[in-house]
Structures are given as C-alpha cells and as structure tokens.
Amino acid sequence: MVVDYEKNGNVCLFTLNRPDARNAVNYDVSSEMEAHLDEFEADDTAWVGILAAKGPVFSAGADLKAVSSGQGIETEKGGFAGLVRYPRTKPLIAAVDGAALAGGLEIVLACDLVVASPLATFGIPEVKRSLIAGAGGLFRLPAALAQNVAMEMALTGDPISAQRAFDLGLVNKLSEPGNVVKAAEDLADQISVNAPIAVRESRKVVLESHGVPDEEGWQITRDHFRTVVKTEDFKEGPLAFVEKREPVWKGR
User: Fold this and answer.
1) What confidence score (pLDDT) does residue 65 get?
2) What secondary structure does DSSP assign to 78-91, as a single string?
3) Residue segments in the chain with a per-residue pLDDT below the cut of 50
4) CA 186 from chain center: how many Å?
C-alpha cells in the first residue's frame, strides 16, 4: 500500500506512504488514492477527510522515474494523484509537515483547507526543468493567493515558507512539527460537529461562486439552499436549539 486509509468516527485519514521516494506520485499512488476517495465519498458516515504524508517530505510531485520510463501516472477520473480532478463533495484538509513541491503543492491546492508546520514549504519549480505546473497549480494558486504572489512562484520556481503561506492565506493554521495531523483532526472536529449536508452545500457555494457576479452568486446560493431545506437535518437544527440540546445529525 502506498496510500493508507483509516477512519475515526466521522473523520477519515489518507496518508501518502512512499517516504523513501519522497512521496512522489506514480500510478499506484494515483489509483489507490482514487479508490480511497471512492470509499470516502460513498460512506454516508464519513464527513471530513485529512490528507497527510509519512516521512520528511509531504510530496515532491510526479515520480519522474515513472514518467521517464513512459508509465502513466494519472487516473481517468481523479487525474494526478487520483485527486486533483476528482469530483469530491466532502471537505478535505491537507496536513503538511514538509516540502510540498511541484505536484505536491498541486495536491495541497486540491484540498479545501491546509494545516502546516514550519517545516513545510510550498512551491511549483517546474520552470526550472522547462516544464509547467500541469495539475492545477497555475490556476488554483492565484485563486488561493494574490495573483502577483502566484506569478512570482510560477515564474521563479522558488518556494515560500509556511509562515509566508500562512500570512498570505494559503495555510489556515500553523502547528508544531510532528503535530500537523492532530491539528488537522482538531479542525476536522470543528467541521464535523456541524450538519454534514449543510457543510457540503456551503463548500459548493464557495467554490462555484468564486469570481462570479453577485447575481450569479445569489442564484448559486439559492440552488444549494434548496438542497439543504429538503433534509431531515434542516428540521433537527432549529428543534435542537428550541429543546436546548446538541443536535443529532443524520446526514440526510
């Protein structure tokens, strides 16, 4: 196994497990990640995911040995790492405790939230090898950062520190080295106390409305609110408030 998967309550942990290869992505990584994502998405009791990595490097990106030998490394549905194009509906938190470079940063950018330690660095150095970041980095990075900062990273290929990434809004929380998974679990717990369908629909609105005119944003919000109104949990929230108790979410 090169991607581990485990579940604890409503939170699932995905772990890249090729530390000797700097967690570089080959076809095995992509196919196992996609299979785990399929399981995660199909499980109604799995509400939030965390993506971590074993070893001192989060991911160095594509396995260039596999690429140079002509091996495909992407999956049809999920693309690179089985993740960057995967049609997810549930929140995914990246827990980064080392370098996330090239495709490694694109894996992070495919997640919804990021926890990092000071050991983390973030970069797309592809231009240093006459390549471009082809797994979403060149359009997701300027959506996550100021365009000028994204342009600097894309054109120089130089990485930024976890502190700068935090200051610029790419990283949600900073954590001590060795504690990023625990910090991500705490963040996941903050999310999973909420109604899971409302969380998923809110995520969709944020993603779908980014950069659109207000009128389109209103329509997107209305469309997803209609989905929430039809759920059992929509009734449970106000009822629990009136009865002065914690809500019991069913996820339906």
Assistant:
1) 87
2) TEETTTTT----S-
3) none
4) 16
Give the pLDDT of residue 74.
95
pLDDT value, residue 241? 87
Q: Which of 106, 185, 232, 236 is catalytic?
A: 106
Angle between helices 232-242 and 214-229 (to 10 degrees): 80
Q: Hey, what are 169's tokens?
A: 């809004």
34-52 pLDDT per residue, tens: 999 999 999 999 999 999 9
| Catalytic residue check, 41 | no
Would you state the pLDDT for residue 234?
Answer: 93
In this structure, the strands spanning 173-174 and 113-116 are parallel
Domains along the sequence of the chain with CATH: 3-192 (3.90.226.10), 196-242 (1.10.12)
Q: Catalytic site residue 106?
A: yes
Q: Which of 74, 126, 185, 201 is catalytic?
A: 126
pTM: 0.95
Distance, in Å, from the CA atom of 58 to the CA atom of 66, rounded to the nearest integer, reads: 19
pLDDT, mean over the chain: 96
User: 100: which residues sit within 8 A by CB, 6+ positions away?
Assistant: 58, 59, 94, 107, 108, 120, 121, 122, 123
How far from the centroid of its chain's Cα atoms is residue 79's Cα?
14
Report d(CA 92, CA 86) in Å as an integer: 12
In a 13 Å sphere around the CA of 69, the CA atoms on its Cβ side amount to 9
